[in-house]
Design a protein that fits this description.
The complex is a heterodimer of chains A (698) and B (212). Chain A is α+β, with helices and mostly antiparallel strands and 698 residues long. Chain A is built from 18 helices and 29 strands. In chain B, strand 3 and strand 4 form a beta hairpin. The radius of gyration of chain B is 22 Å and the shape is elongated. Classes of the chains: A alpha+beta (698), B alpha+beta (212).
């Protein structure tokens, strides 16, 4: 087989890997393009086209290099399983080097539930290629037919003679570089022995012993502590600042650059004190929107019909469809801004050494932050290294590198390493939020359950989950961007948390109009087998048709997001004081072939728990450019006592490619609870969060 | 220091009402209680130093035991136990999630009782025995709660985990493990944003059952 040799940045490879076997993933499309453009057969592949690589050393140990980062979703373990499976090695012989821009190939970021389907696939093929290469080398060495050698437990075995050789011994003294294409044979999921099983977290001991070093725990020689002066409100302008008292503190440096003022001190307490000693006058901006008028603001400032973008689909004519219906239902749903609340706040440690900037920080986009730093400091990429230690969560809220830039700015001035750790208040105020939104849904339904018209307009919060899988004869689905009073960005499942709430609430309301069971109504309007299977699995495990005591209500919801199908059933109890208690939740989840069942269950359960917050009580209160509930005592997040009995039903489709699972699990819980409250009380809530005070208000 | 002064209640109240710390210290009958007040503070008062210099002199010696090791340190009065552990003793296993006693990530044991170390001043722990996550294992032998957290996968990102484990160990000792509801109620001071609550409860139940 023709194996082209590529001109990589060999120094980068060899510095990292030394001797042994290196397998790099380069996409097939690029391979063909590269071959065509280099008739001599030695095309050069820029590092940017390499997705992942792994290295098998002379000691037989495997190191995988990926730009993905670990934020609690446990891809460190699942990716190790995928590699171990193809290489027929125990998981313990795999080391994952993650999120280091010097060592790993470029990666756009850890988000979008993409690690399992994309990085997982690349690594699977890389490991399979490595396996095939080792088999070839052994066959050659023993002068045996390729069909007579097998990989088993880290060894290549000659089935005819019983000879064995370890992977490390095979590659000893060599520097072999292989590239892979899409058609390397991989082990089918139904034959999995390591992937597909529940393997405990590979680094688990580090976390239960307190030994894992998060960015915020890091200490390096000569390190100082930084803090940044924050404005009293958004859009405030610095008028004057008297930094003399802060400067006079022993060991303190004040860094001033326009409106940016930061302090650097020998310890955390001194840094805090120095910041307090700065006497700053600000001009605050008046007339900013507040929580009270945010929804009107979003609608009023939305792009006009001609400015629309992201329309998911238009089919037929929704007005005609309405005329054909027996019942019409028009409703507006309101989705509040909420916060991610990662338990580890933003943190960064920056160090300049001989013109090279190294920053350790918890971000989901190490290469994105690298680009940001390159831009801010006008450096070349090789001069910036971003390293992401396993981080105390992100949930889509750590795409950015604010703390990295701040720490680098301070470190540059004081010429010492500087660590910045945001306070909880800063994390609530100066990061970004899940977008708020207004959703107008107008639908028409016939007595036999046919949906004749479906018009769905999302203001501001986004397009994710906007589409409907249900059969609709006429539909018009639109997203209108708007001006946002709060900085907004990614969140787990993005706008799907709100859009699916609106859709699934509306679906149950339509069912009730025609006196049809909400599950039956959904199944009737679905051709999608995977969605139907999920609904039926959830309903069955839940006991959807079971008897209910007075005050109890059942609700159902379903959706599809990032390759995952989910269906959620919830039971609530509403007492005479109109207090709502969520008693139990059953969620079915299907995302193709399951790599690690227990960890998947954890992700799905965790998503439900987080979703409970946004469904029931999480809400950012703001006015006059200030976040009013920027603490964990004022912004309520789900705690132990909020958790209902949760049952997760995993549907394992070994015949389908593995999809990601970080996000889909969060989209069904809010509408399921909403529909259960409706079932118990007749009250159909249309705002997220639904019961911020714990009780229903009529 | 003049400890032999006879108390004069009137002068005492004047000093308090006048709001002058320096005067208060000079005249107060509580001077006898000054044995517990750091010498540095008294020195500052007597010399009428203003705040800045008084602060600089105000490092207070504290001796306490952490994970069986005795430490004699000097700390600012405002320093929390959490900051003492993390910043001065380099025990970063206890985490800072909010620094306001609202998340529980900083949970440690003081004389066997679980507290939010961010709400305890270092100086208030004179002579006390502190246990942190680093002190649970015995060499390579993990504490049963740590084993249970691994077995039941009671963590995802791991940031709350130290606090969860310390809280859970104390909870079992408190006997508040009679039901899932009781466990949930009395663990409510520990937030897990990743939502590993169900597995944490299972871990606690396992440890409780194995004790029986």
């Amino acid at each position: 087989m023709d194996k082209p040799s590529f001109t990589f940045d060999r120094r980068k490879f060899l510095k990292v890997a030394g001797g042994g076997l290196i397998v790099a993933f380069v996409s097939k499309d690029f391979l063909s393009f590269a071959r065509e453009s280099s008739p001599q057969g030695s095309p050069s592949v820029p590092i940017s086209e390499v997705g992942a690589w792994l290295h098998i050393g002379e000691d037989g140990l495997v190191t995988v290099y990926t730009g993905k980062v670990e934020v609690g979703q446990n891809i460190r373990t699942s990716l190790s399983q995928i590699v171990a499976e193809e290489l027929k090695l125990p998981v313990s012989s795999i080391t994952m080097i993650m999120g280091d821009t010097d060592l790993a190939p470029y990666d756009a970021g850890t988000f979008g539930s993409r690690t399992t389907p994309q990085m997982g696939t690349q690594l699977r093929r890389a490991a399979a290629t490595a396996r095939e290469a080792l088999l070839e080398m052994a066959a050659k060495q023993w002068d045996a037919p390729i069909t007579g050698v097998n990989a088993e437990n880290g060894m290549i075995v000659n089935s005819a003679t019983g000879q064995k050789i370890g992977y490390g011994a095979l590659t000893k003294g060599q520097q072999i570089l292989r590239t892979i294409s899409d058609d390397v044979p991989v082990i089918a999921a139904k034959h999995w022995k390591i992937a597909g099983k529940t393997v405990p977290k590979v680094d688990g001991r580090l976390f239960i012993s307190g030994k894992h070093v998060y960015t915020s725990d890091m200490v390096v020689p000569g390190m100082l502590y930084g803090k940044v002066l924050r404005a009293p409100s958004y859009n405030a302008k610095l008028v004057t600042a008297d930094i003399s008292k802060a400067k006079a503190m022993p060991g303190v440096t004040v860094v001033r650059d326009g409106d940016f003022i930061g302090v650097v001190a020998p310890d955390v307490l001194a840094a805090g004190k120095a910041l307090q000693l700065i006497d700053a006058q600000w001009q605050e901006e008046s007339g900013q929107p507040s929580t009270a008028n945010v929804f009107d603001y979003l609608v009023k400032n939305a792009a006009g019909e001609d400015g629309e973008r992201g329309s998911a689909s238009t089919k037929g004519n929704v007005e005609t469809g309405l005329k054909e219906s027996d019942f019409q239902l028009s409703q507006t749903y309101h989705i509040n801004y909420i916060a991610h609340v990662p338990l580890e706040p933003r943190a960064a440690l920056a160090e300049w050494t001989d013109g090279k900037l190294t920053v350790w920080t918890g971000t989901q986009r190490p290469f994105g932050v690298q680009e940001d730093l390159v831009g801010v400091f006008k450096l070349a990429k090789q001069q910036v290294r971003v390293i992401v230690p396993d981080t105390g969560s992100g949930y889509g809220g750590k795409h950015s590198g604010e703390a990295a830039i701040e720490a680098a700015r301070l470190a540059k001035v004081v010429k010492k390493p500087v660590k910045i750790v945001w306070t909880r208040e800063e994390e609530f105020t100066w990061a970004y939020f899940r977008p708020g939104g207004v959703i107008d849904v107008a639908a028409g339904v016939k007595n036999d359950g046919t949906i004749t018209s479906w018009k769905f307009v999302n203001y501001n919060s986004g397009t994710a989950g906007m589409d409907t899988q249900y059969k609709t004869a006429n539909r018009q689905i639109t997203h209108l961007p708007s001006k946002t009073p709060l900085k907004q960005g990614s969140y787990r499942a993005l706008a799907a948390t709100g859009n699916v709430f609106a859709r699934e609430s509306h679906m149950t309301d339509l069912a009730r109009l025609i006196k049809m069971d909400p599950l039956e109504f959904r199944l009737k309007n679905l051709d999608d087998d995977r969605f139907k299977t999920a609904l039926q699995a959830a309903a069955k495990a839940f006991g959807w048709n079971g008897p209910k005591a007075p005050g109890h209500g059942y609700g159902i919801a379903g959706g599809f997001e990032k390759g995952g199908h989910i269906a959620t059933c919830a039971e609530v109890l509403v007492n005479e004081d109109k207090e709502v208690k969520v008693l139990r939740v059953t969620q079915a989840f299907e995302c193709g072939a399951i790599v690690n069942p227990h960890q998947l269950e954890n992700q799905v359960t965790g998503a439900i728990v987080q979703g409970l917050g946004g469904a029931l009580f999480e809400k950012i209160d703001f006015a006059a450019g200030k976040i009013l509930n920027s603490s964990l005592s004022a912004y309520r997040v789900p705690r132990f006592s909020d958790i209902p009995h949760i049952e997760v039903v995993l549907i394992n489709r070994k015949d389908l490619p593995s999809a990601g699972a970080g996000e889909a699990g969060i989209i069904g819980i809010a509408p399921a609870i909403r529909n259960a409250i409706l079932d118990a009380t007749g009250i159909g809530l249309t705002t997220m969060p639904m019961i911020p005070n714990g009780t229903l208000t009529t | 220091m003049h400890m032999s002064k006879k108390p004069d209640p009137l002068k005492e109240s004047e000093a308090i009402l006048s709001g002058s710390r320096r005067d208060f210290l000079k005249t107060s009958s509580l001077l006898s209680a000054m044995a517990l007040t750091p010498a540095a503070v008294i020195e500052a008062a007597e010399h009428q130093w203003d705040e800045k210099f008084a602060d600089a002199a105000e490092k207070i010696p504290v001796t306490l035991q952490v994970n069986g090791v005795s430490y004699s340190v000097k700390v600012e009065p405002r320093m929390t136990l959490l900051d003492l552990l993390r910043e001065q003793l380099n025990l970063t296993g206890s985490k800072k999630g909010c620094d306001r006693g609202q998340c529980g990530a900083c949970t440690v044991h003081v004389n066997g009782v679980r507290i939010n170390s961010c709400l305890s001043l270092a100086v208030c722990n004179e002579g006390k025995k502190v246990t942190t996550i680093e002190g649970l294992a015995t060499g390579d032998q993990l504490h049963p709660m740590q084993e249970a957290f691994i077995k039941h996968d009671g963590f995802q990102c791991g940031y709350c985990t130290s606090g969860q484990i310390m809280s859970a160990v104390a909870l079992v000792k408190e006997g508040r493990t009679q039901s899932r509801e009781q466990i949930s109620e009395f663990m409510s001071g520990n937030i897990c944003r990743c939502g590993a609550y169900s597995n944490i409860v299972k871990a606690i139940q396992e440890v409780k059952n194995n004790q029986a």
